[in-house]
Amino acid sequence: MTIRNLAARGLVDTAAAGTQETGRRALAFVLDRSFLHPFKVLIYSLARTGSFLDLPILVFTQDKVVHDDPIVTALADRRIHVTDEQIRQFSVVSRERIRRKDRRSWIAKYTFLKWLIFDDHDVDEMLFIDADILCLQNADGIFDEPRGRDLGVCPRMRPSLYRTDEDTRRPAAEVTALMAGMVRGEFPKDHVSMNSGVMILANRCLDAGFRERLLELASQKSLPNEQAYLTELFASDENYDARFLPSKYNFTSTSLSKMPAPDQVSLLAQVAFLHFTGGKKPWTWPLTSQSPLGHMLWRRFEADAVKNSALIPRQRSWIAARLSERFSG
C-alpha cells in the first residue's frame, strides 16, 4: 500500500499531485503504541501536502497493537515485527550509559530500535521519518538535495542558535537570521552532530554490517543516545559518507519557539518537517493560550485529521473536535 492507496480507499484525501517516479525507494517508520496516534497525524500531514504519495511503506514494531492496527495494516507494504532475538542484540548497550530519563526496562532506549532499519530491505534508498514530526509543505524535494553516498541527515539544532558562549540571550534579529540560515543549509561551525529524526539511507547504510558497526561502537564507548553513536561512527570511519541536509527537513519546535512570534510564522512557510523533540509532545501536553506555536499547529492538524479523514476515530479525540471549532474562522 501507499498513501495514495489510502486515498483510493476513501480513508484520507490527498493534495493534487501527479504520479511520482519512486525508483527503488521506500518510506520507513519505527513505532510503538505510544506513537501510533501521532504517526497517523503525520500520515495525514503527508497526504495533505502531497508528499511521498507513491512510496511503499515499511513499519517496524515490537508492539502487537501497532502491528494489528487497521490503519497500519492498510498503509504498510511490510509490517516488520521486531523479535526478542533482534532486541537482544542491543544488550551490548549498557543502561548505565543512557540518561536515566531515557532508559527502558527491556532496552537501553526505545529509539535504538531505529537501528533495525540499517539492513538490506531490497531498496536503493530509504527515507526514515520519526513519528513525532509534522509535514507542513510538500517534501518530495528532499530526494533532490545533495547528500552523502550512504546517508543524508540534518544536524542537531544546538542552543548556540539562540544563546551566546556566555550563556546570554542572542538579539532577536540574530536568532532569526541563524534559524533562517539553518533552513537554507547554512550551518554554524558547532553544528556537527546528527539528528536522526529524518534520514535518507543508501548504499552501506542499507546493510546489516553497518548496524553491526554501530553495535560494536556502542559496546566500547559511552555516548548519551543512539544518534550520538551515529555521529561518532561517521566522524571516525572514512569508509562511510554522510552529508547534512538543510534543516527545512528537520526543524525542531524547540528552536522555533526561541524566535519572535512574527518570525516563527514567516519561517514556518519555509519548513517542510517540524520535529517535536524532547519530552513535551503536543499530543500529551495540555494546550493553552500560552502553548508554543508548533504545539498549536500540531493540534490543528490533529483536529483536521479527525474531521476530514478516517485515520483517527472521532470518539478518541474530543479535544480535536473542540480545537476544530476554536480554529474555524
TrEMBL record:
Q: Which InterPro entries match?
A: Glyco_trans_8, GNT1/Glycosyltrans_8, Nucleotide-diphossugar_trans
Annotated Gene Ontology MF terms?
A: glycosyltransferase activity
Pfam families xref list? Glyco_transf_8
Q: Which UniProt keywords apply?
A: Transferase
Q: Which domain of life is it from?
A: Bacteria
Which Gene3D superfamilies does the record match to this protein?
A: Spore Coat Polysaccharide Biosynthesis Protein SpsA, Chain A
What protein name applies here?
Answer: Glycosyl transferase family 8
Q: Which organism is it from?
A: Palleronia marisminoris
